[in-house]
Amino acid sequence: MATINFDSELRRAGANATGGWGRLAFLAQRHVLGTVGLIIMLLFVLTAIFADLISRYDPLTVDSAHRLAPPSMLHWFGTDSFGRDVWSRIIHGARISLAVGIGSTTLGATLGVIVGLASGYLSGWVDLVFQRVTDILQSLPLLVLALVMTAALGPSLPNVILAIAIPLIPTVARVIRANTLALREQPFVEAAKSIGMSEMRIALRHVLPNTIAPLIVLATAQLGSTILTEASLSFLGLGIPEPYPSWGRMLSESAAEYVRTAPWLVIFPGIAISLAVFGTNLFGDALRDILDPRQRG
Amino acid sequence: MTEQRPLLEVTDLVKHYAVRGGVLRRQVGTVHAVDGVSFALGAGETLGLVGESGCGKSTVARTVLRLVEPTSGAIKLDGEDIAPLSKTALRPYRRSMQIVFQDPFASLNPRMTAGDIVGEPLTVHGIATGAKKQERVAELFQQVGLRPDQMKNFPHQFSGGQRQRICIARALSLGPRLIVCDEPVSALDVSIQAQVINLLIDLQRKQNFSYLFIAHDLAVVAHISHRVAVMYLGRIVEIADKHELFANPRHPYTQALLASVPIADPKAKRTAPLIDGDVPSPINPPSGCAFHTRCPYAIDRCKTERPMLQAAGTAHQVACWLNDGTGRSE
Amino acid sequence: MSEAIPAETVLDVKNLQTVFFTNSGLFRAVDDVSFSVRRGETLAIVGESGCGKSVSALSIMRLVPDPPGRIVGGSVTLEGTDLLKLDDAAMRSIRGNRISMIFQEPMTSLNPVMRIGDQIIEAVRLHQKVSSKEAWKQAVDMLRLVRIPEPERRAQEYPHQLSGGMRQRAMIAMALACRPALLIADEPTTALDVTIQAQILALIVDLQQRLGTGLILITHDLGVVAQTAQRVIVMYAGKKVEEATVESLFETPLHPYTRGLMASIPAVPSPDAKADVRLVEIPGMVPSLTRLPPGCAFAPRCKLAIDRCRQEYPPLDEVKSNHWAACWRAGEMAEAS
């Protein structure tokens, strides 16, 4: 039998990780990809917050003298057909993506929790109605549904957030409902009933707090797809209206015309979208492994 | 126990579950989980309810507390039938009856502190709040052998035995007169079981409440109970004073059950298993006496006519057709 | 192995050490444990949850999950071969063939979408070259051996069509299909009702004696031990604290923990039993394996503990003939009784 270094084995198992920071450092070491994802997400958030400081030009200023300039020291990512600085537009575009991502995920998750909790906890006809509505919503692709909604509501930031949030509701509601159904059978819920607690209090005090972990996992996983949906909507001209810089719109404006002559107009927004989605997905996966190991698969 | 009126009197309790099948979810059968159970429990008394899995003992426990709605029958608490009461009308009665579950891990909300768990009933019934509540919870912690400084800990920081103590403290918080114990020690280690059983007995002596004690372990039931009822397929087949039952079991099923318990003494000769086969399904249970399919002494009458509980000695009732309805004498 | 092992010894475990590397530290789940099983003998391993009895069994099968677990020392010799030195392929040919295991929960141990007969066939054909027809016949014979009524029909059925007791019989049939030298039963009747438990225990003991299989019975139930085993080892906090023949152990338990266990189980009352006797408690709880006290792990809960117990771990001495105990005061207890 090979000799075993007990200390290194223990370090690998995380035995020396003490305190909040120690534990965090251990998790970061254990989930390298998740850490990478977290760093990307942090960069993304910081970029959005400090966009005005990082960007070198105003993203909306048109400069006809420098139209379609290739990347240079002056314009790191080049300029577009109006002479606007691509670097600055991408930096500011992070704001839009983040606002839509967080806004629609939060809205969708909140509504989804309410529906899922009510559906799972009340059961009976409430459940039946919610379930069938969910089925109908889920039979349509996320993008198509969002498309129809923005087309109906008109393009604006709140409308885009709403349009992306609504198709999220069934996904969240499903998970919360399944969780609620399982929790309802737990003896601690039965114990709560036996002391004469009202159904409402049981749902809020005993069931809801125990669905938080899967909810966080799910919401993080959905963040990437909401960013992607926003980009797609904008690409199709139904997202954030001009002149605000949205990564999706930047792509659509340039893709057909300039993909050969000015490829930087396509490459950089494309990388921005992929990186943001990639980062949230990596982080979401790691979070799932840490918080909810049963869902791994 | 010679009480004027029993604390709990259960008469003809029935709980049937519909079995649904097919695409249309039509009812295709009925599970006879509890099939006409009657018993009485005096103040300060412990009634043990034993039987094998699926015999309906846990359903009886939950139905008595109205955690499961009875199909029919009366549940009289202090002379008041609580079976027909609405949920709101039932609430004040909940203070008088509490439950301790089998699994001390699943019966505590993992996201609440032990102190909050024990204090919650006080809040719900508006009995105490703030410092007064904390004081009462600390007192309850001491009563069940926990330290008040453990109130701020979460369930996962406790061992199985300690968790069961928290469950007991929660049950005690409202000053109940009846505590239903559903297999309270069967998930615990042997050395911890004794601690919890002793605690339950000590608490009863001090506070004089009654236990309906459900377990599959005959030795544990025998230890804690004053009287014991044996259940088989949703029915009580024998009920008697503890010593009478173990000294003089009359129902062939009780006899088989007692003979099956392995005795912790290698010199005790192992008897060949008395009964063969498994418990039949509670969906369409056998006609007549439900035990007749496994009973080596069954007579023709057992197959057709259901025996009712009949007196077979002092403080001893049995449901068996043998010997003119007094069961089999060994 | 240089030492001669008696010819009839099927399994010889020497100084087995299995540890778990966890984020709360090093768990010595099995700490320097030795025992052996002879042909046709039943060895019971008794102890409470976390004492290392199940990990011992998994170590013999080399099924300890890694990570976090690892066998870090000792030897497990089955019919002359040290299993800990085998490669994975060689170990697979031993498992289910020379050693079999049956578990507590018969429902989860059977594949729900395979017929009972096919599952037994699978176990047989993994290790023996027989035609499928021959294997089916063997499967039916095995079901008959474990006294399942109508074995031809039952072989065609799926696990959910069988009752709990039947399933455990089917598990036993599967485990014994290759006539293993050693059968490990980990709490085989804990999930079953008493009347079924009595049937299954009687069956296991009967078959084991007829086939000459060595049996390791892991249980927490002293009643089961007394009724089925010939020899017993008692484990506490990863260590073997006592070993004896079943008669000697129940007559004069020599470790205070064993004594405590025996005193703490309520007995089914005999007619003359005194009512409402308090049970004897073992105070406190099983210590965490990562924070074991120095000296004897049982000392903090032990009424007989002296200063020495808290400083030095006692050696496992043969206090009486064929009766070992790891306790500084076992000698006194042996004399007193």
TrEMBL record, chain A:
The chain crosses the membrane at residues 31-51, 98-122, 142-169, 207-228, 262-284. The keyword Aminoacyl-tRNA synthetase does not apply. GO terms for biological process: peptide transport; protein transport; transmembrane transport. Keywords: Cell membrane, Membrane, Peptide transport, Protein transport, Transmembrane, Transmembrane helix, Transport. It is a multi-pass membrane protein. Gene3D superfamilies: MetI-like. SUPFAM superfamilies: MetI-like (SSF161098). Its main location: membrane. PROSITE patterns: ABC_TM1. It comes from the Bacteria. It is found in: Cell membrane. One of its GO terms (cellular component) is plasma membrane. This is Peptide/nickel transport system permease protein. It comes from Bradyrhizobium macuxiense.
